[in-house]
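Q: Joint fold for the lines below.
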Amino acid sequence: MLQTRDVLTTMHAELERVDARVALAATVQLPAVSGLVQEIVRAGGKRLRPLLLLLAGRAYRYDLDRLVTAAAGVELLHTASLIHDDSIDRAGLRRGKPTLNSVLSSGAVILVGDYLFAQSAMLAAATESTRVVAIFASTLGDICDGQLREMFDAHRLDQTRDEYDRRIFGKTASLFAGAAEMGAVIAQAPEPDIAALRRFGSDLGMAFQIVDDVLDVRERTQVLGKPAGQDLRQGTVTLPTMLYAAGLTPRSAAAARLQAVIAGEIEDEDTIAAVLADIRGSGAVEIAMRAADLLVSSAKGHIAAIPDPETRSLLHELADLALDRSS
Amino acid sequence: MLQTRDVLTTMHAELERVDARVALAATVQLPAVSGLVQEIVRAGGKRLRPLLLLLAGRAYRYDLDRLVTAAAGVELLHTASLIHDDSIDRAGLRRGKPTLNSVLSSGAVILVGDYLFAQSAMLAAATESTRVVAIFASTLGDICDGQLREMFDAHRLDQTRDEYDRRIFGKTASLFAGAAEMGAVIAQAPEPDIAALRRFGSDLGMAFQIVDDVLDVRERTQVLGKPAGQDLRQGTVTLPTMLYAAGLTPRSAAAARLQAVIAGEIEDEDTIAAVLADIRGSGAVEIAMRAADLLVSSAKGHIAAIPDPETRSLLHELADLALDRSS
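A: Joint structure:
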């Protein structure tokens, strides 16, 4: 049996190749911008999306160079999307570092994001598979759709779980689903396996976003690398908040306070901290984590028939990594 | 011989099909955004880029549906790029109508632009040609590069013609070049013809941008459909301004005034109007128009060997349309 965290060791060499491709593609020939972009790209994250893409192709006849190219494209698409997202949220910190929009004008940030989108599309095109490009483009469409929904659904407490699921699918799970599908397509997996790996990616992505939403409620700024409680501050209703709201007595003081914070009528930090503490104490965090657990189990179930047992085991590890992100 | 403007009549049915594809692809399933996006798309322009793409394929074995798909992709890429550009410039008017960013928050505008980029990439992928997708993606990269250069070169009067050319190639000519290349590639034109049509598009695009820069100096807001003198106001040094500056006595009052306007130190409308009047009176507008004329002649020269004489004649007309844009 492989040990937990072995997935990062096993795939170390491939991930290094992805990083090199990303760094090369993110080269901007403008001195004023170049250093900043390289820094953001280097800060990276856990590289879960490229890892998923590489692993999805691992059990089949893969051409490593094409997998690496697509994986770099996925990571760069993710980075471009984060840059625009930070600009939209006017966020000051990401991955523990100042965001691009705390250093450049908003116009420059939009253009740098667009430039990285272009580079990521070039990597997708370099796989020479129109199917990969089509998945890539529709994934970008899904991401924008999810982000637009997040924006237009903000400040409304009366949201259904369906609305939340649709939003986080677009915003986050679509790229996990697309990454897994691209890897399987490039490696010429049989169609049922492509579909199974896509579902694995989708469930994993949903779990990942729920955990992200839980962390925003549960952790401190130092742990997150970005300010805690941002969702509440922006009026974004996440699963922990929905579960907490469902347990409140209608027309109670706590319900009115939550309503006012989400609506953006109350913005003072003490009230936000009090609401966060209340959510943490309500059991909502535990229920949300259980939902994420179930999604990870479901994800693992989808790939029960994937041929190579070692690859299956690495994908299971990856799924566990998505759940346990505090360490 | 065909008469001028016949190109729009001849290609009317094809352009209608492009418009229908664009409208379909630009459908956003969010009520708050949908109407606005359709309005921008419908306002359209002269559809020069899709027209160029269609004509570039016309002399060869073309599949009209694939040409229409790519042409819709090019028009949508252009629209997405305008939306981000207006947001960066905080422009209030475009094509005589309020811009998206005068109605939506800047965050929503970024996302709507991204969404349209995604839709345009899906159209490129739908041509099922990885070469078309690669041209598409590298064109988007060139556009961003040009726009970033415009931003970082702003407020500096000491610019060379090379810097200007590089900037307007990226910002404008790259999409004309890419559109012509995509049309020729889809229609399986011989490689020398693909290269010739790309050069035709590039020169035409350069001429188009020079005329655009002249119009900003020469015309009134009502004619332009956007505020006149915007380049000066934003510190963007265009060819008419460069030519005007070259004719000024160093350290004269006029030179100092121009320097202060470009640097953004003087922003009052009377001074800007006076500088505009001076540029118009200096002969710079006429020299710039002659440069555009020469580029159009050069463009026409590139396609002398294109097989079908009627297509050649239509491409010549298109080139003339790019020059004469006041009517």
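Q: Anything notable?
A: Residues 146 and 166 of chain B are 7 Å apart (CA to CA). The first helix of chain B runs from residue 6 to 10.
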